[in-house]
Amino acid sequence: MMASRVKLKFPPGPSFGFRRWSLGPLNSGDPLEYFTRIIREYGDVVGLRIFNFRILLINHPDHIEEVLVKHPRKFIKGRVLQANKRVFGRGLLTSEGDFWLRQRRLAQPAFHRARIAGYASTMVEYTERLLDEWQDGEERDIHKEMMRLTLQIVGKTLFDADVERDAKDIGKSMELLLELGADFRRTLFIPQWLPTPTNIRLERAIRQIEKVLYRIIAEKRASGRDAGDLLSMLLAAQDEDGSRMTDKQLRDEAITLFLAGHETTANTLSWTWWLLAENPAVEAKLHAELGTVLAGRGPSLDDLPKLVYTNHIITESLRLYPPAWGTARTAVEDHEISGYSVPKGSGVSFAQWTVHRDRRWYEAPDEFRPERWEGDLLKRLPRFAYFPFGGGPRQCIGNTFALMETALILATIAQQFRFRLVEGYPVVPLASITLRPRHGIRAVLELRTSKSRVAVGENERLAL
Ligand code: HEM
């Protein structure tokens, strides 16, 4: 019992002093800057009070490990995710306890390396299809292009559905869900059942996505065919008592995978393209490696271990611009971190953004240096100095999928195109639920080489 123990203090933080509480990050236009500043000011454990709710912001890898790996049962997902239950339902990202464990066990086999290996050719094929639409010298929003591409890949590989016909509507609805779900103040303080104009828009967006998902589920049930995708597996999966998932459960998992699986990877790619365009020396090394290993042909799964520098680029991009930029938990039991009390019901948060840019772990932390990953830096770092996919039992189920997809798309596109950023166009990170470019990334497409394009060009010349 806490009462019989020495009473532990709540850590100091910006909510103390002349103000007893503050809206803290909720009131800050830029949570990335806010967290960076208060950690610099107060150290590795910062106490925040938002109204009567207490949050410990922790920043040391060992403390993060304690929460995610050593005591995961003492913490459940944070309030923002909980408040988004209307969207995610009881899908993998938001469910807890025995229910979560059962779902995770059912879904896990679909993400095994051997299983997702089969998705590699789809990933390359869909990327090439996108490139067929691109023209040399054209200006496009790279982020929009990446969102469209990863949405189609998730649709095909996880649901065996061609979502191309729905991509526009789904894309719009997803954007709205992400935008509204990421408005922390709104999410926390305005109940989702209140018919406010924003909630009505949110409800409409959810319905739009549900319509597509229920259609896919119905088509699958009717066909009874296992096409090797995740949804077929979940449809066929049986509990010990023989019961199967209801349409509602399938909808919850599907929407979770849709949301968790496509925007994060699209962000990784978008930030990587931007970093490459800003760092021509790195880009040149990437082109050299692709030239040596692939020599103009499309990449396959077997090529990935040979694309060492390409992988360092992705690792470094995920360090500087982690799509999951922060993590939140709520304590369901009293706990103690670094001599401070974590009372039951309080929040514990930590930010990949600040930990990944900490000079205790990284030299010149704000610089994009893929070379830093040569020579096993990862092994020398504390386990949670680099954790773009989280850790412990709730770690990302799609990490292998995401890394494979990012590398294949990067290698396919970079062989054919490079991007020249539109001068003066602001590229600004927006820390919503994920970390994305607030206004997208506008760039001019510059054709490098293309086998098919060269062939067409030569035929045309011959014809002339
Ligand atoms: C670069 C891409 C990605 C990043 C950075 C990322 C990051 C994360 C992180 C940090 C978590 C843990 C959240 C927490 O502890 O609260 C997570 C969980 C999850 N991710 Fe990812 N993710 C990515 C791609 C994917 C993909 C491609 C999928 C599916 C196809 C996916 C599905 C999930 C699911 C279902 C969970 C919840 C797992 C559970 O609690 O059992 N993610 N992701």
Could you explain how this protein is built, in words?
The protein is an alpha+beta fold. The strands form 4 sheets. The protein has a 5-stranded mixed β-sheet with strand order 1-2-8-5-3. It has a 3-stranded antiparallel β-sheet with strand order 4-12-9. A two-stranded antiparallel sheet has the order 6-7. The chain is built from 19 helices and 12 strands. It has one domain: Cytochrome p450 (Orthogonal Bundle). A hairpin with a 3-residue loop joins β10 and β11. α7 runs parallel beside α18, α8 (142-159) packs across α9 and α13 crosses α15 (308-320). Residues 453-464 have low confidence and may be disordered. Helix content is 51%, strand content 11%. The longest helix is centred in the middle third of the chain and has 32 residues, at 247-278. It binds protoporphyrin IX containing FE (HEM). Protoporphyrin IX containing FE (HEM) binds next to α13 and α18. Protoporphyrin IX containing FE binds next to α13 and α18.
